[in-house]
Every structure is written in structure tokens, then in C-alpha cells.
Amino acid sequence: MRSKLLVSMGLVVCLVMAFALPMCAPTPPAEEEEAPPIVPGKVYEWKFFAFYGPGASACCREWPILFDKVEKATNGQLKITIYWAGEHPFEGADALKVIKERNAELAHLYSGYVTAACPALGIDSVPMLLPADSDKAFEVLKGLYGGFEGDRSGVLERILQDDWDTTMVWLLPATFQRIHTKGYEVPDIGSLKGHKVRVYNPEFAKLIEILGGTPVSISSSETYTALATGLVDGVCTSLVYAQEAGWLEICDTTDLWEICAASDAMIANRDALAELPPDVRKAFLDVMEESMPSMREIEENDTLLEELVKQGHHVCTPSQEARDAVIKRAEEEIWPDWLEAGGSDAEEALAQAKEIMASL
Q: Mean pLDDT over all residues of the chain?
């Protein structure tokens, strides 16, 4: 009996070893698979909605150059198509909504257009608030917009992110709004007494009153005739616009009050930016950063003024003392309305702007 048991156990052991040995045998090396072919990077097609026509302003000449640089810097992975005013269904006042709802990845932002939706963004449209020096005014806006790097310490950048899911990526320093007059100068408070000046918003109307004049609100299309007939003898606008409208055929003096300079800028949808590969996103932002500040509009304005002076046009530069007196009045009589409309956002933006200006 015992011998039969031993034989049975030995048979079991042999069977177990017979099945186990093949499982323990070394696995032959697998054949090497071919590496997958290199696939070119995904191409991202972005839309940019502008609210001017292609030749309307200096920024319109900058944008095609910028977007061509972006395409080259990203090796063709980011292509941006411009849709000019009339080629899309939106108005300038819709810029923030366009980006929030992602009707386009990029949009033209002119602060004067969006103050109804976000009054705080109109800080550069408030008379006599920013420095009269274009470089310093740009530095103030750069700080308010977080250095154009998405830094939320900038009050206006934080507002863009929190309320509109957007970020400021580019800004073109603008030319100042000035007073252009017919046969007289405006050097200080009181020098507009007896004169009527065409204005296009309530803030400018109040400024003309501070200077002693009577503001007249009439359309741009009626202004040439109003100047020619003496209904008004001055206008508030930029030098380039006054020239293009023909108003400088009648107005022979430009008074450099440097009232304000609402800038043309570019905002981007934050989700669209986040979807870009890191290298493509960096290349895009680098192109934006390297192009600022472009002084194209300032330089075109300065060149025009030089040509006009050669032709006999007069220039009046108010003293700093006179300017300080008008700033004081503007702070008391004009800024409060903007602050009330903008609430705590405008108050914080003004406080930060003053802090930056004090450091310049």
C-alpha cells in the first residue's frame, strides 16, 4: 500500500514539474516596434474682431504685422485672422461680451467704447487724470493691467479676469485729446470766456466750463459747418482726427492740454490661451510683450504737428501751474461722476493709478 502511495505522489510531482517548467522558461525578446511618425503640431485658428476699418488708426497698421510675427514665432501653429468692423456683427461696446462668450479669441478694446459695461476701464478717458507724458501714461496703464502678464495685482486686470474671463495682452499708447481753436489760445482757466467749443461727451463739456467756455454738443458731420459759420470757434479731439475731418482748415491753433488718451488695446479669452501648448502660448505672449510700447500713433501725431507748424499752425502749451489748477478742478468736479459710476472698482483703480504716478 505504501509503495502504491509513493508511486502516486511521484507521478503528481512529475506532472506539476512538467507544467511548471514551460511557464518558468525565459520569454523570448519581443520584436522592436517602429517609432510612430512625427506629426506636425496642431494648428490653432483664432479670430480677432476689430472695431475700426483697416486704415482707421495706427493700431490697424500694427495688428497685421503683429499677427504675422505670431504665426512665424509659433511655426505656423497659431494663425490669427482679422475681422474688421462690418465683417462681424458686433460693435465696440460689445468687446468684453465677445470675449466672455468666446465669439472670438481676441478682440479690440477701446476703453471709451466699454465704459457703460465697465466704467473702471475708462480711467484713461477721464479728463486730466493720467500724466501728460505718453511714456508715463503707458506705465500707469501697464501697472493697472498687471504688466500685461495676467498679474492680478493690477486692479483692471483683476476686473477683466473676474468679470469677463479675459486678460489684457497688448496696448498701444494713444495720442492725447486736445483743444483746437480759431484765432485764439487757451493758456489757463478763464481764457475760454466768450468762446463756444464743440464737445462729444459730458466730461469734456465740464472741462470747457472749467476753462470758462461754453460747450456745444453737435455731431461730427455738422462740426465743419459750425466752425465755418461761427456757431463754434473750437473743438475737442485728437490732432489726427481734427486734420482728417478738415477742421484744421479753420482752426489755426492747437492747445496742448493733453486732456486724456483712451488707448486701443487687445484682450484675449483666458480659456483659449490656456488651451494653447505652453511653447505656443509663450511665443504668442512674447511677441505681444516685445512689441510694446509701440509709439506709432504718438510718432504719427508728432510728425503731423511738425508739418502743420511749418505751414503756420500755432501751438499753445499751458504752464504746469495752469495745468495743476485745472487738474484740481477736474478732480473735484469731473472725476466724482466716474467714481460713482464705477463704484469700488473705480476707486481702487484710481488709488493704484495715483500710487504708480507717485513712483514715476
A: 90
Q: What is the CA radius of gyration of the chain?
A: 32
Cell of 134: 505718453
Which cell goes with 86?
A: 462690418
Q: What does the alpha-carbon distance between residue 226 and residue 24 come to, in Å, rounded to a whole number? A: 102
Helix (H, G, I), strand (E, B) or coil at 196: strand
b/e map 184-209, b = 16+ CB within 10 Å:
bbbebeebbeebbbbbbeebbbbbbb
pLDDT digit string (tens) for 322-343? 999 999 999 999 999 999 999 9
- pLDDT > 70 fraction of the chain, expressed in percent and rounded: 89
> How many C-beta atoms lie closer than 10 Å to residue 293's C-beta?
18
Q: What is the DSSP string of 253-286?
A: EEE------PPEEEEEEHHHHHHS-HHHHHHHHH
Do 287 and 69 touch, CB atoms closer than 8 A?
Answer: yes
pLDDT above 80: residue 11: no
Q: Could you give all domains of the chain from N- to C-terminal order, each with its CATH number?
A: 44-176+261-302 (3.40.190.170), 178-260+304-341 (3.40.190.170)
Q: What are phi and psi of 232, to 5 degrees?
A: -135, 155
What are the E-state strand segments in 207-260?
A: 214-217, 234-237, 253-255
Q: What are phi and psi of 269, to 5 degrees?
A: -70, 130
Kind and range of the H or E element at 207? Answer: helix 202-210
In angstroms, the Cα distances linking 124 to 62, 285, 293, 310 are 21, 24, 16, 31
Residues forming beta bridges with residue 79, ordered by sequence position: 45
Q: Is the dihedral of CA 170, 173, 175, 178 positive or negative?
A: positive
Q: Per the structure block, which three cell numbers stand in for 149?
A: 502678464
Cβ within 8 Å of residue 40, ≥6 positions away: none
* DSSP conformational letter for 250: T
Cell 463754434 sits at which residue? 232
pTM of the model: 0.84
CA distance 355 to 333: 21
Dist CA 301 CA 238 (whole Å)? 9
